[in-house]
Structure formats: C-alpha cells, structure tokens
Design brief:
Elements lengths: L13 E2 L4 E2 L4 E6 L11 E2 L10 E2 L10 E2 L5 E6 L2 E6 L1 H7 L4 H47 L2 H9 L4 H10 L9 E3 L8 E5 L1 H13 L3 E4 L3 E4 L4 E3 L4 E4 L6 E4 L9 E5 L6 E12 L15 E7 L2 E12 L1 E6 L11 E7 L2 E3 L7
Helix pairs in contact: 3-4
Length: 354
Amino acid sequence: MAEFQDYFGTPIAYNPATEDLVSDAEFTVHAVDDLALATPLRITDPTSGVEISTLKASNIGVLPDFRADGDPVQVIIKSGSFTTKLTSVYGAVVAAGLDPATVQSAIQAGADAVAARGRAVTAEENAAQSEQDAAEHADEVRAVVATNDGIMAPILADPESTSGAVLRDTIGAEMTIALPWFNVRDFGAAGDGVEDDTAAIQATIDAAATANGGVVQIPPGTYKCSATLLISTSRIHVAGAGWDITTLVWPAALAAGSAGIRIRSAATRIGAISLSEFKVSGDPRIINPGAGDVMNIPIGVEIDLSSLVELNRVYVDHADIGIATSGVTPATHPGPDQLMLRACKISATSSHGW
C-alpha cells in the first residue's frame, strides 16, 4: 500500500465574507508563513505527479485536486485580492485526532471490497448468461428435433447403425436433445469445489442409464471428485456449460491405472456416448510436468469397448495421460470403434497418449 499522500482533495474556493464561491478564477498557492504571498509553491497532480501550471476554479468554484511541494498540511490560495486557507486531507485526518495509517488502511479495505464485489457480480452475470444461452440454444434445437424424433431417436439408439453415425457426424451432440435431461444439481452436486460431488454426479449418470439414455447436465461450477466416474451403458451424454466455467477436479490422487472418467461396460460393447463442454483437471500445482511427476489422475478420460463415442470441446489438464483409448487388455477390451474428437484440448500431461 502506498504511503498516505498529503494532498488537497476537491478544494473549494469559498469567500466567507460574501458567502459566495469564487468561480472561473486562477489561483496561486502559498505557504502559510509566506505572509507577503510573494512566492507561489509548485503544485502537481497527486495521482500522476504532473505539474499543474495554472490552478483554476470551475464555474461552481471547485478546484482540481493538487499536491504542494514540501507536503504542507495547510496552504493559502490567492486570486486577486481574495485569499483563503485550505487544509490538506492528511492535515484534516491529524486534526481530527485520527491515525493516518489507520485511515489509509480503511480506505484501501473499502476500495478492495468494492472491487471484489464487482468481480463477483461479473462472474455471476457471466454464469447466468451462459446458462441462458444454453437454454435458448436447447429450445431451438428441441423444436427442430421434436418434429423428427420418431425417425431419428431409434437410429441414434442403435450403436451399430451406419445412418446413426452419419447423423451424429452431421449435427453432433445436438442430437442428444431428443433424450431426457438430468441435472447433477438435482442429485445433490454442489459445484463449489469444496463438497465432494462424486456420488451426486455418478447418481445422475446412473439415473440416465436407468432411463435407457439421457443427457447428464453439469451447470457452471467446480465439481470436486474423489473417484472414477463410470459410464457403462449406451446413450449417455455428459454436457457441461463450457470448459472455462464447468470443471471436474480431482484434488487427491487416484489409484494407479484409474481414470477420471471411464467409458466401459463389463463385457458388451456400448455406444452413442458423448462428453462435451467441460474440463477434467488433476493437480494444477505442478506447473511443468515431466517424466518424474505423478499426477492425481493417471488417465483423464478412458474410452474402452464402445462405438460412436464423441468428445466435443473437452479439456483434460494435469493428468498422466490425457485421453486413452484402451486401458485394459486389447484382447478383451479393444478400445472404441468410431471415436470422434471435436476441438478438444489436452495440456500438462506427464506421460504418453493423447
């Protein structure tokens, strides 16, 4: 914090004899012991330090803030025959019996509080706008799909359908609008980065599976996880609100070979699965991972024994391996068939793989 400046804030040229403000007048500034008012003091702008060559009152008698050489607590200002004495901000604080350092700390704390509130309001507004945009987009797509649901839904539901693959390649994750939606907040997820949301997110995935498919919606927030999130049935679509505002984070290490998100069934191939618009993050404290670093997430996203899997704008950060297409035995879990990656991002991995 800068030292409390001794300056003259919002000074007013007031003539007590006439009870008028001296407006549109030019003033010189003098030390209080300069009784002859013969030697004007040099004055500067208290913020920029630039010299003020002419101190002039406005049309309502208000002078600009200024600082005088030598930092006097009082000065005399003169315009023609008019003179008056001004007391600086520092001088007023001392005259009131207050400690300047304490006053300065209070002023700074108030400014910090206003700035923090402004940042909080901006974040809330951005999150609200993102949710509104997503809702409007969903409504638009729902209106189109509703007229063709009887045709498209059965095709999308068949992971072996070539037509289904063509449809997904054409309009991607927007096809999921024909399925029921399940919001993780409705299942108890907090999204505050503090509460463990693993069970709530897994319960939402399981609810979509019970409904024979659905969209798992993850609103803006930071969702703390402590175990692998498993997708083991077809037609599951996990959708965030954007990788910059929806984050799944594993702050503690998972067991070796584990994944943050795993797409795998016990035996049969599953399909028509998508992940979109969120971030999977391990330990961001490791700035430049290398071969000797061990991340909290061995595998960010593991895709295994599946068909028609799409990752759309998924960001994997701080994992040993970003995306792995086979995490077990190729003979029994040969990895995905028809995997589509759209605008995904992987950074700060310490091993091989995507």
